[in-house]
Amino acid sequence: MWDLPRFHFYVISPTILALAVSAVAVGWTGIRLRDMSALMLALALLSLNGFFLIHALSTPGFIIADQYHLAGVASQVAMTTCAFWIFLSTLSSDHSFIRVVSRYRRSIVVGWIAVIVLMNIAALVYPSISEFIPIDLEPLNYLMALITVCLYLWAARRYFQQFRLVKFPLHSAIVLGSVLLAITECVMVTTMMWTLAWWLYHVVLSVSALMLLFGIIAQYRSNISVSQTVDPARGSASSDRFRISISGSMKNLIVATETKDEYTAGHNYRVAMYGLQLGQAMKLDAELLRALARGGLIHDVGKIRIPGEILNKPGKLDADERTVIEQHPVYGYEMCKYIGFMTEELSVIRHHHEKWDGTGYPDKLRGTEISLPARILAIADVYDALTSRRSYREPWSQERALQVIVEGSGTHFDPECVSAFVQLCRTGGLVVPEDLD
């Protein structure tokens, strides 16, 4: 037995507080980058750290009297709420609940921070509040532990499946962190305060929290700032007009896609920038422009699952090969809905091959059933494909490519988008983007 309340307070509190501040910073990053995975994980870390701050401040015999069991209640609330947010981060971006969260993400982050702050104040002013929710006592503690462990292990399983697919460092860190948190929960409910095992669970908890934080940092520390290179109003270079950041892991996914399809090097980036220029010309708001750019940068990621002999076939595809390659928007959509992309980006990835008259693929949408960002990117995608070298032909001139796009107005493309694109080209406002380093 090591009955050291002062040591427990002075060591645990600063660590928890520092991690809470980091979680707030990561949450803001998730909002700014439109990345739901980062946002959910930030809320998980914030919950873990915020409620464990109550645990530290309510150390028995230090600030709070021994007769209260606030520290035990706070630690269980921290573990369970953290598990809840991590579980939510495993849901797909097209899930109805996640759509609501993404729509009100700023309010949710601010609101959850307010809840944690108010809970800290209330717990210290009225420590007897723990008497009304004795979730650290039998049999409630075992029930809460079972629910919490199941949530952590479910998250670990789902993130392991995603890691095998995309190899993101964030996913591997969540797998390890979630397993450690599940172990922490088991030790926490089966040990007596001040024993060696009790101190050990604090160590495991700190390691698991740092593991999650490390994964988030590893995922987003190599963010790449992509700048809109053209101001359509002036037709001149402009590096500070509009910026969007992508993680180094996302760039690796783009590179993997273009490595698989050897004739499309730079295609994703050029399409995203062409789409961004057209979106700017059509006066889309900043959020839709970011969605358009992020979706455009990775719109062909589903081609990773298409056999190379079909992607790089020099001649015309037969019917069976065409059926296979037409699945790449679905593959990309299924992949990206679990790695943080929001609904608007997902619509770009899944629907950039839909046609205005309903003859496109994969869902045969028509007209305004297709989202505006997807309709814009459809033009950018075809324009870049026509003006770039392919395995079966030389690049076309801008005039010839524009002729094809104009001929497709009302059938393949949204007439309003075609009109804006033609005007953009005629005025010299469309500029070929520089390569993404």
Fraction of residues in β-strands: under 5%
- Share of residues in helices: 55-70%
Q: Helix/strand/pairing class, anyone?
A: mainly alpha
Number of helices: 18
Shape, please? elongated
Main sheet properties:
2 strands, antiparallel
Question: Runs with pLDDT <50, length 5+?
Answer: 229-240
Gyration radius, to the nearest Å?
26 Å
Along the chain, the helix and strand elements come as HHHHHHHHEEEEHHHHHHHHHH
User: Averaged pLDDT, please?
Assistant: 82
Q: Quick one: how many beta strands?
A: 4
Distance between the termini: 57 Å
Placed side by side, the strands forming the largest sheet appear as 1-4
Q: Would you kindly provide a written description of the structure presented here, covering whatever features stand out?
A:
The protein is mainly α and 437 residues long. Helix content is 64%, strand content 3%. It is built from 18 helices and 4 strands. It has a two-stranded antiparallel sheet. Strand 2 and strand 3 form a beta hairpin. About 3% of the residues have low confidence.
